[in-house]
Amino acid sequence: MSAKNLDQKGRLRSKIISFRMSPEENKLLDRKVLLSGYTKQDYIISCILNKEIAVYGNPYVFRSLHDELVRIIEIHGVNIADEDDEEMVEWALKMVLAMRKKAKTDLFSR
Questions:
Q1: 91-105 pLDDT, tens per residue?
Q2: Exposed/middle/buried for 29, CB within 10 Å: 0-12, 13-18, 19+?
Q3: Where is 6: in which H helix or E strand?
Q4: How far apart are CA 77 and CA 72, in angstroms?
């Protein structure tokens, strides 16, 4: 039998939760997960439990941040009309400013 898959606190995550999302909601979730540097499971659990999401700069996060900014600039230029993209720009700017100070970036699920 394979080894038990425990979380960081040694808990066995044996319950499965599933839900449905629209393609647009899924796309936004995927973008937020990439920028957070978390796994999708950890990101969703943190959001549901209203925990702080702290992002620390690493190569994976830097690449995701770069790709997100390039995507937004290619689509919108300087005029951002989409509410989801506006939220992502806000996240990206918070991350860039925190990285300049070499501090963690606190992002909230709401």
A1: 777 777 777 666 565
A2: middle
A3: none
A4: 7
DSSP-derived letter for residue 27 is: H
| CB-based burial label for 31 (10 Å; 0-12, 13-18, 19+) | buried
DSSP assignment, residue 55? E
* Spatial CB neighbours of 101, under 8 Å, sequence gap ≥ 6: none
Q: Alpha helices, DSSP H only, in 1-110?
A: 23-36, 40-48, 59-76, 83-100
- What are 22-57's pLDDT values in tens digits? 999 999 999 889 888 889 999 999 999 988 887 777
100, two tokens: 């300049």
In this prediction, residue 109 has a pLDDT band, given cuts at 50, 70 and 90, of very low
Using alpha carbons, select from 70, 106, 83 the residue that is nearest to residue 25. 83
Q: Does residue 43 contact residue 53 with C-beta atoms inside 8 Å?
A: yes
